[in-house]
Amino acid sequence: MYKEALVHGNVVHHMQTGSELQMKERRDYLLHIVAVIKLLGKQGISFRGHDESEDSENKGPFIEFLNVLSKFDPFLKRYIPPDNATYTSPSSQNEIIQCCSGEATHKIVNELKASGMYAIRGHHKEQLAICVRYVLPLSGEIKEHFLGFRELEDFNADAITESLQECLKEHGVDSILCVAQTYDGAAVMSGVSGGVQAKSRKYHPEGIYVHCYAHELNLVLCHTCKAIKEAKDFFSTMENLYTFFSTSLIHHHKFKAVQNTLGLKQGELVQLSDTCWSCQVRSVNALINNFPAVHQCLSEIESSTATGLLVKFKKTVSSILSLYVPVFAYPHRGLPHNPPKETLDLAKAVDLKDAVCNTLRAMQTPEKVSELLQKAESLLRDTSTEGEEIVLERRKKQKSMEDFVVEQSSSREHVSTKDDFRTKLFFPCLDGMISELENRFSSVSEEMMRGIQACSPLSPNFLSEDLREIAKHYNIDFKSEEALVANNYFANKKLNSQTLSMGQVYKLLDPLMFPTVTQIIQMALTVPVSSCSCERSFSALRRLHNWLRCTMGQSRLQDLAVLSVERGVLQSVSDDAIVDRFAGMHARRQALTVTRQNVK
After folding, report:
1. Considering the entire predicted model, what is its pTM?
2. Does domain 100-210+529-544 have CATH number 1.25.40?
3. Is 270 in contact with 242 (CB distance < 8 Å)?
4. Given Cys at both, which of 67, 110, 147, 532 links 339, Cβ 3.0 to 4.6 Å?
């Protein structure tokens, strides 16, 4: 027996070997479950079914996915899990989902800590969405990630600020330098004295406030349209047209048939949105592409609604479309819209704004007016209304006279000549938009803006003494010699700084040789332009928290939101790391990790 034990091992060795083989099988089984949960989480698919019993024909996506895998996977075909280690119960699901979310968030937080600085972005509706932006110190890659949702007990500035700080403290980043904060324009968020941005400075005094540029752009265009009666009527008609063709199958089929008859590409009208100007752009482009089909449908459908829409269509739509395309669509193409790219920095966004303003000023010429009117006439000819005069009606202002009773008049003055179109519609539209652009995009102080622009190679003051403005704000001991050497470095390398981006400049500069300059440029890159990534998380929230899943708890909702929003990070997380985290949550009846002991 002694000799056999030396050759084949003793009883303890055999028991330990058998236990390790069983543990490996349990881990392999759990890895299959983790893969299914990651897939369902990334796609935002529900997990549980109404009836998960053995006799049920639909046990829910989670169980059904495992059943499909068991038909083709050799391991799942032969492996029968113990009754106390199936890991398919709701509680086990929640724990594995929590582990997947925890590993993804852990990776984000580790990168943020390595960066040494970040910007926080928040947006609130029924929940508070919290995102961060930071720059990786080695690669210079700009990252924007979602940290999670927070359920708000109240919607005042104090409650929102406390929720923000609790989230940062929970992830251990509350002590890291916060260089900026970006929110929407709601008073509770942007208030100078009582808003979240003001109260957050108690915890992060260096964090400058940047009003989301995407919201700013939307406000510029919306306010300009509201100030012009014809533009307001135009978008009202657009909404009525969408409703007319989308709510009735008869009208929709008629629209499709006319498209085929005219040889137009199949397409739908797009619904308008009050909060996203890109929806307006897509809606107008769809109307332009289907202009003849819309006109013919309204002419052939015999109903009072179609007749009324046709009258509005002829009076305003054709000429306003010619105004819309160059005036309202150009800022959308030139400025950061929803959603802007992560690589867009604040200096470039301001340069784009200035370029748009200069372009709009250059459009204030009689030649441009003639060009727009010719386009309007072309649209009218294409819809078989050749020779019809372009007439825009403007309501007369009611005279106000004290101590007199004045009758209200609904008469309208006609803007039918080229001069009237230029002076009463086109030029006021351009002036209003330029004024809004100049006034609204100014949430950052002038001194700080000069410092940020000094980090941009497209700026005439690139790497100048204006960098000292950022250094002073963030308490950095700026060395002028570093900026001078950096300028000479680009000259010696024969690099044209005008062709580089701020991110490329950051990658080219060695942080050991240019410690303060690279730190300042990193701060400028970290300052966000918009809070659109927070709004994208609400799109995931609508998919996750629908009426079929309305009983979901906050913890599970938070974890599923991370899986859905940060699917790229989740994909890079090791499945074994998730299993190890799951094994260490609490003591389990079946071991999932190896504890080796030397057997003598």
Report:
1. 0.78
2. no
3. yes
4. 532
